[in-house]
Amino acid sequence: AQTVTQSQPEMSVQEAETVTLSCTYDTSENNYYLFWYKQPPSRQMILVIRQEAYKQQNATENRFSVNFQKAAKSFSLKISDSQLGDTAMYFCAFAYSSASKIIFGSGTRLSIRP
Amino acid sequence: GAGVSQTPSNKVTEKGKYVELRCDPISGHTALYWYRQSLGQGPEFLIYFQGTGAADDSGLPNDRFFAVRPEGSVSTLKIQRTERGDSAVYLCASSIPGQGVSNQPQHFGDGTRLSIL
Questions:
Q1: What is the Cα B36 distance to its own chain's centre?
Q2: Taking residues B50-72, what's their average pLDDT?
Q3: A15-44 as b/e: b if 16+ CB within 10 A
Q4: Residue B101 has what pLDDT?
Q5: What does the alpha-carbon distance between residue A36 and residue A54 come to, in Å, rounded to a whole number?
């Protein structure tokens, strides 16, 4: 079975600092997608960034970037110049290219201090 | 444009009662998903619809849970004989069809918080 592990239940950094959230996953497949979702108190899951496993280049979206290490099955999220609005739960997630469901990790609660 | 809409936002009911949770997907999204998020956990997949049919219901925990999507748009998640362990946030998501469902991002609603007393 596929699993997604987030080993940091909580993290806290000062505004404008850089923070890295860790994620590891387990699969025997070669083609899949990895995601980072943000969930603020409003409960809505918001897609932050997505990585296709067949792409070697790490995905970036403005202040958000990933470090995808396929051999190590690691997928960390780096948030640069953190802002107060980045405070939320962050979920690492996995899905097969042709599958329907997304498998989520248990989340990391990120707090940005002013 | 309008996002995924879920109603009610909150539902409190007594153990043993029947509940229905509604999801109105983004217009034109033929794929619809239900997830359950227990306190302090990530969402867990329940069921996936492509059009009117359930393409994958492997996440439904038992036969007390059932979902329908009769016209390929709005979906209803139904829970019979509710138990306290059913208390959770139920999330709905939708996406447009594509080559491999995971190619298209799933757009989530705000969820329904279900509390069983």
A1: 7
A2: 94
A3: eeeebebbbbbebeeeebbbbbbbbeeebb
A4: 47
A5: 17
Indicate the SS3 state at residue A86: helix
Contact A43 B91 (CB under 8 A): yes
Residue A32: closest C-alpha in chain B: B102
Q: Which CATH class is domain B5-116?
A: mainly beta
Token reading at A54? 């067949």
Query: Could you tell me the fold of the domain covering A3-113?
Result: Immunoglobulin-like (2.60.40)
What is the structure's pLDDT at B106?
Answer: 85
**The pLDDT of residue A30:** 86
- Cβ neighbours around B79 below 10 Å, total: 23
Q: Do B42 and A95 touch (CB under 8 A)?
A: no
**% residues pLDDT > 90 (chain A):** 78
- Could you state, in order of their start, the residue ranges of all structural domains in chain A? 3-113
